[in-house]
Structure formats: C-alpha cells, structure tokens
Recover the amino acids of this structure.
C-alpha cells in the first residue's frame, strides 16, 4: 500500500508538472510575440513593450522562463489579470466556492440518483420503469447541457417561478445548475450501476444470500450493490473532472461567477494570465480527485491488492 | 488419384461488406437512417432550405411557427428552419472534420505505441496522462484560447481535444491484436513489419475504431456546439446549432421557438449517434461493453 501510494503520488506529480508545462507553453504557442499578445490590439510604444518583456521575464531563455513560472506558481503567484490588473489568485479564490459548491452538489445528485435509479432499473429489468429510467438516462447523455439548462430555466423559473433564473449565493440558486450538471454524470452512473447490478444479481453468492432467507434489501445493499460499486467510483471520479469542464457551460447558462465562466471570459477578452490560471486550477483539481479515487479502492474492496 | 476439380467460385455466399448493418438492432437501424438524413444537408443545404439562412427581414421578426415559416423566425426575421438546415451542415461537417482529425492523430500513435511497446509506448502513455488531466471540453478550450475563436479553429480544437481518448482505445486494441496467432504467423512466413501492420493489425483495429468514432461524432457535435454557444466556435451570422440556441436565450420567456428547435435537433442527432454507437458495439465489439 505504502509503495503504491508513493508511486501514485509520483505519477500525479508528473502529470501536474506536465500540465504546468502545457499551460506555460500556451502563451508561447499563440501566433505572434507573447508581449504583444498580452497588450492585445492596443498600440504600445516600443520601449514599453521591452520594459514589460523584461519585467515578466519574457526575454529570458525558455527553460529559465519555465523555472521562473514554476517558482512563482508554487509560491501562489499566478500573475495579474490583463483587464482588471487584479491578482489571478484573488479572482480564483472568489470563483472557487461557486464552482466547488456546484460541482459537489451535482456530484451528490449524480451519485445518489445514479445508484438509486440504477438499482431500480436492474431490479425491475425490462419493465416500463426500467424503460423510463433508461430513456431519461439516454437523454441525459445526449442532450447538450446548455440546452437542458435552458429547458429547466423555462420550466421552473419562467413558468413556475420556483427558482431564480441566474445568479448565485443561495441554495435556491444552486438547484437548477446542479441538476443540469448532474444529469449527465447521473445518467452515466445509472447505466453503469444498472449493468453492474444485472451482472451481479446473476452471481451465485446473491442466490445463496436469497436462499438463506435474507431480506431483499439486505441482499441488494450488502451483497449486490457493494460489488457493483467499484466501477462506479472510477467513473464518478472521472465524471467529477468532466463536471469541472462542464461547469464552463453551465456557469455561462446560469451566469454564475465560477472558475469556468472566468475561463470563458478570459478567452473572449484575450486575458491570457486568467486563462492560464483557471486551466491550471482545473487540471490540478482533477489530478487530485483521480488520485484520491485510485487510493480509495483498497478501502472499499479489500480484494484489491496493490503491488 | 484423379484430379480434384475445384469449383470455379466458392458456392458459399461470402458475407457482404454491409452484413454488419443487417445485424444491427432495430433502434440501431432507425438511428442509422436518422444519421444519414442528417447527412443530406451536408451536400445540398440550399436545395432543402426554403429561405436564405442569413437573409434579414425586419417585417417578419419574432414570428411563431406558421405555414409560411414552419419553425418561426428569429429576432432578425430569419427563417429558423432554413437556419437549422444550414446549421446541420455546419455541425455535421464539424463532426466529420474533427473525428477525422482525431483518427489521423490517434491511429499512427496508438498503433505504434501498442505494437512496438517499449520506451516509445511509455512516452506516449505519459503524454496522454498529461493531456487527460484536462477533462472534457477543457482541452478544446485551451486550443481555442491559443488559435482564437472561430469555426475552423473549433474543428481543430475538438479534433485535438478528443484524440487522447481515441489513442487509448487504439492502443489497447492493438495490445490484444499483436498477441494473436495470425500476427505471429504473418511474421513467421516472413511478412515485413509494414505488411503486418497494414494487412493484419489495421483491419482488426477498424471495429473498435468504428464504434468509438460513432460515439465520438456525438461528442464532437456536443463540444463543437457548446463552443458555438459560448461564442468561441462558429461566429454570427453563420447558422450553427449552438449559436442559434445562444441567440434565442434572451427571448426564452416569450419566443420559445428560437432556442427550442435547434436544441431539439442537436438532441435528436446525438441520441441517434449514441444509440447507433451502442448497437454497433453490440455487433462488432461486445468486449467494449462495461
């Protein structure tokens, strides 16, 4: 276990380092002079361009620039926004709670709904209930989130006026975006739990448990679900990452000032330090959740041994 | 022993190239038909669309669905059906181009990594690990940030963004293929590496490739139209599904038809592709089932 943990930590560190290289290279891959890119279309005197180039260290060789970038990033300095001149870290710190609350709520809905509907669908295999669940899941996988978000707004904010259309801060603001974002992941998890349960329910140990006279609930939860749950954890951790990406769209639909919206606005306004900061944050967050998921398997299924 | 007479041609009917299609589930067949219908505007949108998709007509703004404008008109009086048909062309070509790009990147890389293994495979896999750290739409957003917004750049962005997932599938397929007896036999009778790869490995990678491309087409449409919705893909006045939904957003309260029809169209296209992908997987590659 200790060795596996060390190996996995090492691997995650490599991935984060690679992500930093990519994010660092973004500014240099944009066609044109990076300093001019930072200034945008504004006409700037040559001396000022050179002054900024020197100030940001863009006149150094690339490898030294990267070392400088890593050092600054690790000390919590992600640069300043080109539009507002605020430190990126300050903006991110303000945006993170909105995205995190959205992603966590959506994940809870997705996992809860996925397990519940997955079990129901498997136990009532080939009934109208199963068909209904499968159809809703297919819709969740297929419909674009920006459209499902608008449908929910139309139904629950415009027609019934139950929830505010846009904005953030209260639980009521969180409901529709979380459902929008959670529907997709929930649909994937539902399918996974359903096929996993269908598989497990055929196993001998489930028949044994039934034959012993255990209640249906005990059989389902203690014997079947536990064994169908392993792939769910893998996929849920992957989906959490997808959600961080999906938050980009959902935050735009519901006008939440989260990290995703910050990223999109950064791209639209050519505010590259903001883009770099937001991208790096999502990549690091995703790597950490994957790490945690990988390590947690051993606790859930003792049969898994790390070598 | 008398001479054996060989029949001039094998009497057994060889399975046709499209026999696979006959084995598809009914839902899969229906989805294939829907997909092919969506391909029609790819070739001749101007024949199908009743009006010019970008023609502005201020006398006809915000008309609901009617006999004259079946799906209504938008805030510029443009015919939504015509815009949808032309938008279908945009989104379908986006899917086609980006899936082709993903394949062009992932096939050589995945086959080489899976077939030659060794240090090359390690390097490729670690690189993929890094790329996979940017989930979902994020990699596409990075590419758009570098290249700038626009339809062509969105195609490239989606193609690059999805390539890592394709590469993984190709590599893992090749890993099993290379252990097969026919690969060893080919080597034993002296087939060169190029011939082995071309004649024996590539045809066997095709089945998982077809499955992942079908589902990947759906993903490409979703991500591409999401970029359009965010203002980072196709730019107005180009008719594109995502931008159409985005334009109708402001008028959701009273002019529901502007956003609803393009959204529903994307839904139908993507559902068809997902069902077709599932059906193809069941027929071609049952192992991919989770």
């Amino acid at each position: 276990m200790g060795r596996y943990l060390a190996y996995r930590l090492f691997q995650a560190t490599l991935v984060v380092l690679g992500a930093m290289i990519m994010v660092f290279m973004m500014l240099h891959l944009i066609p044109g002079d990076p300093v001019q890119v930072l200034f945008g279309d504004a006409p700037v005197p040559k001396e000022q361009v050179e002054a900024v180039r020197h100030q940001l260290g863009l006149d150094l060789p690339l490898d030294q620039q990267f070392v400088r970038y890593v050092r600054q990033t690790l000390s919590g300095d992600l640069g300043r926004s080109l539009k507002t001149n605020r430190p990126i870290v300050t903006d991110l710190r303000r945006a993170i709670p909105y995205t995190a609350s959205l992603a966590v709520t959506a994940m809870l809905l997705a996992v809860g709904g996925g397990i519940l509907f997955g079990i129901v669908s498997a136990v009532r295999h080939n009934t109208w209930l199963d068909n209904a669940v499968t159809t809703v899941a297919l819709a969740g996988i297929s419909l674009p989130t920006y459209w499902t978000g608008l449908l929910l707004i139309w139904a629950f904010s415009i027609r019934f006026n139950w929830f505010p259309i846009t904005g953030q801060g209260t639980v009521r603001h969180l409901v529709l975006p979380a459902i929008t974002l959670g529907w997709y992941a929930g649909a994937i998890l539902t399918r996974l739990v359903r096929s996993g349960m269908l598989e497990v329910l055929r196993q001998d140990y489930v028949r044994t448990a039934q034959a012993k006279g255990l209640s249906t609930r005990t059989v389902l939860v203690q014997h079947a679900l536990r064994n169908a749950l392993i792939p769910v954890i893998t996929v849920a951790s992957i989906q959490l990452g997808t959600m961080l990406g999906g938050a980009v769209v959902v935050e735009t639909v519901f006008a939440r000032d989260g990290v995703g919206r910050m990223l999109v606005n950064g791209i639209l306004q050519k505010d590259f330090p903001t883009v770099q900061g937001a991208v790096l944050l999502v990549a690091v967050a995703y790597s950490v959740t994957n790490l945690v998921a990988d390590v947690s398997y051993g606790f859930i299924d003792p049969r898994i041994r790390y070598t | 022993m008398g001479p054996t007479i060989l029949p001039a041609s094998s009497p057994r009917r060889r399975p046709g190239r499209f026999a696979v299609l006959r084995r598809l589930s009914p839902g899969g067949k229906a989805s294939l038909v829907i997909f092919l219908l969506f391909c029609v505007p790819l070739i001749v949108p101007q024949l199908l669309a009743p009006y010019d998709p970008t023609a502005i007509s201020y006398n006809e703004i915000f008309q609901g669905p009617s006999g004259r404008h079946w799906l209504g008109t938008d805030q510029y009086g443009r015919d939504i059906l015509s815009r949808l048909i032309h938008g279908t062309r945009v989104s379908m070509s986006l899917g086609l181009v980006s899936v082709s790009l993903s394949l062009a990147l992932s096939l050589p890389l995945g086959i080489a990594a899976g077939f030659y293994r060794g240090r090359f495979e390690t390097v490729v896999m670690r690189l993929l690990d890094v790329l996979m750290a940017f989930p979902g739409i994020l990699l596409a957003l990075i590419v758009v940030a570098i290249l700038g917004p626009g339809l062509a750049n969105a195609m490239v962005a989606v193609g690059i963004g999805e390539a890592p997932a394709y590469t993984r599938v190709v590599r893992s397929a090749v890993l099993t293929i290379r252990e097969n007896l026919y690969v060893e036999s080919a080597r034993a009778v002296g087939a060169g590496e190029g011939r082995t790869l071309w004649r024996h490995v590539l045809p066997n990678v095709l089945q998982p490739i077809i499955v992942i491309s079908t589902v990947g087409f759906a993903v490409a449409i979703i991500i591409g139209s999401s970029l359009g919705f965010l203002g980072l893909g196709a730019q107005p006045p180009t008719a594109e599904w995502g931008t159409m939904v985005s334009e109708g957003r402001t008028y959701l309260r009273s002019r529901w038809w502007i956003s609803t029809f393009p959204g529903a169209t994307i839904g139908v296209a993507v559902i068809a592709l997902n069902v077709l992908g599932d059906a193809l997987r069941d027929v071609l590659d049952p192992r991919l089932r989770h």
Q: What stands out?
A: The mean pLDDT of chain A is 85. The two ends of chain A are 8 Å apart (CA to CA). Chain A touches chain B through 51 residues (CB under 8 Å).
